[in-house]
Amino acid sequence: MVLSRDGSASLFAASAGGTLRLAGYLLLSVALMMLDHHDDWLPRVRSATALAVEPAWRLAGAPARWLSDIRENLAAQSSLRSENRELRDALLLANVRIARMQALVRQNDQLKRLLDAADSLRMQGQLARVIDIDLDPYRRRLVLNRGARQGVQVGQAVVDAHGVMGQVIEVLPNTAVVLLVTDPSSALPVIDARSGVRAVAYGSGSGDLLSLPDLPINADIKVGDRLLTSGLGGRFPAGFPAATIVTIVADRSGNYLRAAARPAARLDRSDQVLLLRDLAEPMGPPAPVIDAGPPSSLIGPAPAGVGNASTPRAARNGARR
């Protein structure tokens, strides 16, 4: 070691030692590069070093990857929830549209049957829609969306696509109340389509059935017979389906039969009905027929021996005398 005048170590000596170490590192580096160039063994060392360091590198980068995966999963779940919500809304809307289309198809079918029934009987009527029902357990009535302003009158018969429903008993400016055939105060003249037996079907008031009381014990009526309107009374047109016999029993005395019938009309389901016009029968004899042709003053006297068709027989006999 080289000492200075004050006894401290020389800086040159320290610099000389560092320079020697640097020179040794440079020589070692050059030697390694030459060996790598000739023998190609450093890549194997780097590969082994990378294999040993890779677990630590992956472990160090794992939190960042986990956070990225969590963010992607949360975004995907949010997107899926939003998409599922949109699909559920679209499915609900599609179901509503399908139900509406089915309702329109049923409504069109009912209207077609109503119009076909009116055309087959050569009758005129007015379409109406059911807008309310009477929930009283002892009454069977409906409210229609047609009234006096639309020409509805008390007593008009009401039918649906399957049969007679009832008659109008009250008319307001824009609505009308219908008394159904099952109401206790209803009476419907009917005829058995098979045997021609006439009867009156009354509303039972309990359930959707018609009652035919006090039938003759020998009446030709069977379960399953179809009852049609007879037209008696002039209120209901003849030939409309009224009901079907479901039960027949004898009363306690054994002298009469009591029958129950199920109405042909869909009283609890039909929402489109047809108001028929009053079909009262004309009263009195038919009007006289007026002969057509020119007046008798223009024809002149009839030839001899030929009687005038319009001259009474007594006058012709007197002329011959």
Question: How far apart are the termini?
Answer: 195 Å
**In percent, how helical is the residue content?**
25-40%
Largest sheet: 6 strands, antiparallel, barrel
- How are the strands ordered across the major sheet? 1-2-5-4-3-12
Sketch the topology as an H/E string, one letter per element: HHEEEEEEEEEEEEHH
What is the overall pLDDT average? 76
> Beta fraction of the residues?
15-25%
Number of DSSP strand runs: 12
Q: Count up the helices.
A: 4
Q: Structural class of the secondary structure composition?
A: alpha+beta
> What are the low-pLDDT stretches, counting only 5+ consecutive residues below 50?
279-284, 289-295, 305-321
Structural shape: rod-shaped
Radius of gyration: 53 Å
In short:
This protein has 321 residues and is of the alpha+beta class. Helices cover 37% and strands 23% of the residues.
Written description of the protein model:
This protein has 321 residues and is α+β, with helices and mostly antiparallel strands. The chain has 4 helices and 12 strands. The strands form 2 sheets. The chain has a 6-stranded antiparallel β-barrel. The longest helix has 79 residues, at 42-120.
Note the main attributes of this structure.
23% strand; alpha+beta; rod-shaped; disordered C terminus; 6-stranded antiparallel β-barrel; 4 helices; 6-stranded antiparallel beta barrel; 321 residues
Helix and strand arrangement:
Elements: H1 11-39, H2 42-120, E1 125-133, E2 141-144, E3 157-159, E4 164-171, E5 176-180, E6 187-192, E7 198-203, E8 210-216, E9 226-229, E10 241-250, E11 256-263, E12 272-276, H3 296-299, H4 313-320
Antiparallel strand pairs: 1-2, 1-12, 2-5, 3-4, 3-12, 4-5, 6-7, 6-9, 7-8, 8-11, 9-10, 10-11
